[in-house]
Recover the amino acids of this structure.
């Protein structure tokens, strides 16, 4: 099982949103990292078959996805950043409607809907209109519809937006279990959501994939560039203004522990610390703060 993205390009008049991307996706959880405008959503829409390519092909097990047609849609699940629904739909109505569109037999649809309502803790709101739900609950409904047909390829665009920390942990656990023999591609700004569950990550910048690898391999790009120092409270604001700060936290002795990125030691007494995926993200995209 593999999804091949072969020299894919998407041109919109004077803007090239995706430019010559080559990627081979195999079973497991893949993280797709990049700042706004990097081309992540456009690439995902092309993988979903919603947007055509200007150049290149996308193949599933060697067959171009548009040639596969319905056979590809049958094994595919997709959660866009914003999913549409009729305002009058309840959660149950919507999932039954989506199951019909996906061609699930009635018995199988009923079983799968019941399972997903339980796994995503939506049982208590299944008769409520989706329009009346909180943002986090709406997101869970979107995740449920993407999983209805037990897809072999699952594409999720910012899936944890609006979820609280507990919901995000449960979602990560669900994905880890689901992705054992399936391809799951997640685009997110919340680096912690994929740092510990992704098999591999692809990093996009300006429409191109600039790095591919496991978390341990990718963070080596910032090895030796991540520092930590304890500074006086009155110094913290000055350092924040001139350094690329990853995070700061107060100590009981009144000092502030500063984690920062730099080629060389910038605060006296700093020590190098082990890099994380968040450090790499902020090193590559210094003008785009990660949601913390």
């Amino acid at each position: 099982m593999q999804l091949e993205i072969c020299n894919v390009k998407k041109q919109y008049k004077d803007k090239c949103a995706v430019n010559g991307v080559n990627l081979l996706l195999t079973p497991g959880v893949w993280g797709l990292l990049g700042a706004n405008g990097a081309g992540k959503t456009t690439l995902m829409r092309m993988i979903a078959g919603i947007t055509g390519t200007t150049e290149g092909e996308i193949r599933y097990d060697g067959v171009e996805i548009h040639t596969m047609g319905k056979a590809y849609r049958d094994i595919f699940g997709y959660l866009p950043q914003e999913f549409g629904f009729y305002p009058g739909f309840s959660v149950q109505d919507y999932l039954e409607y989506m199951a019909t569109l996906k061609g699930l037999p009635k018995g199988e649809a009923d079983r799968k809907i019941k399972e997903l309502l339980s796994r995503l803790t939506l049982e208590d709101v299944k008769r409520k209109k989706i329009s009346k739900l909180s943002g986090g609950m709406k997101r869970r409904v979107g995740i449920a519809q993407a999983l209805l047909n037990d897809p072999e390829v699952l594409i999720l665009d910012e899936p944890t937006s609006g979820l609280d920390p507990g919901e995000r942990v449960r979602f990560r656990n669900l994905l880890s279990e689901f992705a054992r023999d399936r391809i799951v591609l997640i685009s997110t700004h919340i680096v912690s959501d994929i740092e510990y569950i992704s098999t591999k990550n692809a990093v996009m910048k300006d429409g191109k994939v600039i790095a591919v690898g496991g978390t341990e391999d990718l963070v080596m790009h910032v090895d030796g560039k991540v520092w930590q120092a304890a500074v006086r409270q009155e110094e913290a604001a000055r350092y924040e203004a001139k350094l690329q700060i990853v995070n700061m936290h107060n100590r009981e002795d009144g000092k502030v522990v500063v984690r920062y990125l730099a080629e060389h030691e910038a605060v006296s007494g700093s020590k190098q610390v082990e890099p994380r995926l968040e450090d790499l993200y902020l090193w590559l995209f210094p003008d785009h703060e990660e949601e913390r």
The domain at 3-216 is CATH 3.40.50.300 (Rossmann fold). The two ends are 35 Å apart (CA to CA). The longest helix spans residues 106-119. The chain has eleven helices and 14 strands.
